[in-house]
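Bumping my old thread because nobody answered last time. Still need a sequence for this structure:
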């Protein structure tokens, strides 16, 4: 069959606007899918950063009234991405974080902002643009999840997919927001957006989409359970045959230690010794004492999800074992404070940089010996994949995508040369502590450690296999449509 046309809808896309892994995924997938016969066009909000990046754009549609103001749809290409930018000044022309105001709280009109994004996606899906009819509308996370709802309740036939990147973010609003959505009244029902008496954007998308994906096979199973389903488990179980767990890959061009400008020294699998120069650069940047002992890093949002409070309780033990930690993160103020306190208690052994620094995250992968990812839950996780590619050994909780992407260094896996990291029971401080001890023992045997690094670097973390699965899913949906 000819090329499949997919309209991706997302609130974030790398390299234009990123708060987490979602942007990495939506930024990398289109390029890979192009090799699988899928042409992706991506609809994103016209935040200032996005509008500033437009060199040449063409206005392809005008909405005189879109949730409280006029808006334009601009077609453009940036960084190899085929984009439709929704320039709705009253909704998106605000600096800073895409979801939060300067007070750190959600923008009060987030319901309107992301209903508008989804509504426009459904308009494009039904074919309002001249010369462009997508076969599939693919919505990422709650911010785009109303797109399938608009399509379904307005009777448009184009197929839809919703991808859950994180079930913890659901886009739930009071029932009073329903009227402004402009949906038929029967959309306020268990088959639509109604959710415990309110309006649920992600819930609506999950109820209406023709297929649901999430970002790892283990998370796909976990979210059907009471423990991880966050209230959606019943709905997800009822739609189980439409649910696919497709593990994320990474952009191996952006993340390549052989040609990475952010590193002090580039290297590859044959020159791992050069990582030491990066270690020295990290020590300087994080005010750490210089030594050749085990250096851990963390690159993370500082939130409950990431289990970093459990790490805080184990920091004294980590330092007592002779290891050091360089942490780059931002988020929860209390957690930030706790890491700063630990830094004061252990000068030269724990270094903390708060904030968001893409280049520094590369350096940490290129020079730390191991990365800690103690998440309570982790739909996929990307930092452990970057770490694998950079020969930085992942020490991870056994949950979601972490469980799917790392091979624990148990005796059998070590003997088979298959081990790539260390895994421990999630949400368990004692298990984390035991993992730190195990990691120290592995590190002490430098030959074994180098074998772990090399096995990690040989792991296929590219998008190839998963892009094949997305392409197959799209094809199945499109063929189902024509029969
Ligand atoms: P999540 O999306 O839940 O935050 P992921 O592991 O999927 O977790 O993706 C996080 C992404 O954000 C990675 O690309 C990671 O390198 C990046 N990241 C997180 N915190 C920071 C930070 N403080 N500075 C730079 N990059 C960060
Ligand atoms: C979410 C998840 C993370 C995942 C990312 C990209 O932010 O928390 O685990 O890797 O989305 O899919």
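Sorry it took so long. Here it is:
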């Amino acid at each position: 069959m000819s090329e499949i046309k997919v309209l991706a809808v997302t609130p974030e896309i790398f390299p234009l606007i990123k708060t987490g892994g979602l942007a990495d995924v939506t930024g990398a997938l289109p390029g890979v899918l192009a090799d699988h016969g899928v042409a992706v066009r991506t609809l994103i909000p016209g935040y200032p950063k996005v509008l500033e990046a437009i060199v040449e754009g063409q206005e392809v549609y005008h909405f005189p009234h879109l949730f409280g103001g006029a808006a334009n749809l601009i077609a453009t290409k940036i960084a190899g991405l085929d984009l439709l930018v929704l320039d709705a000044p009253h909704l998106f022309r605000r600096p800073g974080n895409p979801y939060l105001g300067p007070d750190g709280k959600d923008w009060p009109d987030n319901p309107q902002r992301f209903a508008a994004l989804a509504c426009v996606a459904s308009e494009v899906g039904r074919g309002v643009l001249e010369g462009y009819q997508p076969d599939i509308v693919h919505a990422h996370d709650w911010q785009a999840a109303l797109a399938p709802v608009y399509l379904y309740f307005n009777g448009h036939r184009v197929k839809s997919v919703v991808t859950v990147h994180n079930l913890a973010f659901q886009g739930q609003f009071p029932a009073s927001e329903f009227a402004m959505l402009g949906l038929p009244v029967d959309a306020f029902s268990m088959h639509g957006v109604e959710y415990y008496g309110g309006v649920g954007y992600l819930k609506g998308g999950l109820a209406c989409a023709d297929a649901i994906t999430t970002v790892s096979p283990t998370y796909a199973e976990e979210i059907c359970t009471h423990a991880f389903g966050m209230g959606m488990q019943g709905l997800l179980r009822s739609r189980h045959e439409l649910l696919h767990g497709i593990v994320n890959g990474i952009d191996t061009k952006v993340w390549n230690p052989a040609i990475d400008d952010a590193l002090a020294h580039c290297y590859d699998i044959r020159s791992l010794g050069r990582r030491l120069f990066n270690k020295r650069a990290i020590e300087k940047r994080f005010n750490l004492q210089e030594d050749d002992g085990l250096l851990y890093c963390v690159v993370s949002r500082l939130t409950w999800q990431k289990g970093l409070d459990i790490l805080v309780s184990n920091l004294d033990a980590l330092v007592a074992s002779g290891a050091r930690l360089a942490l780059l993160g931002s988020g929860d103020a209390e957690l930030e404070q706790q890491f700063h306190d630990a830094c004061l208690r252990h000068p030269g052994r724990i270094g903390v940089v708060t904030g968001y620094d893409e280049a520094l995250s590369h350096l940490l992968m290129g020079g730390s010996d191991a990365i800690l990812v103690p998440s309570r839950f982790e739909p996929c996780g990307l930092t452990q994949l970057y770490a694998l590619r950079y020969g930085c050994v992942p020490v991870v909780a056994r949950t979601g995508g972490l469980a799917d992407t790392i091979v624990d260094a148990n005796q059998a896996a070590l003997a088979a040369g298959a081990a790539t990291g260390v895994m421990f029971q999630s949400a368990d401080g004692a298990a984390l502590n035991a993992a730190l001890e195990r990691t120290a023992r592995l590190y002490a045997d430098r030959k074994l450690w180098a074998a772990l690094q090399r096995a990690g670097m040989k792991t296929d973390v590219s998008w190839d296999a998963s892009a094949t699965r997305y392409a197959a899913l799209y094809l199945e949906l499109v063929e189902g449509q024509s029969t």
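The chain is about 40% helix and 20% strand. Let me know if any region looks off to you.
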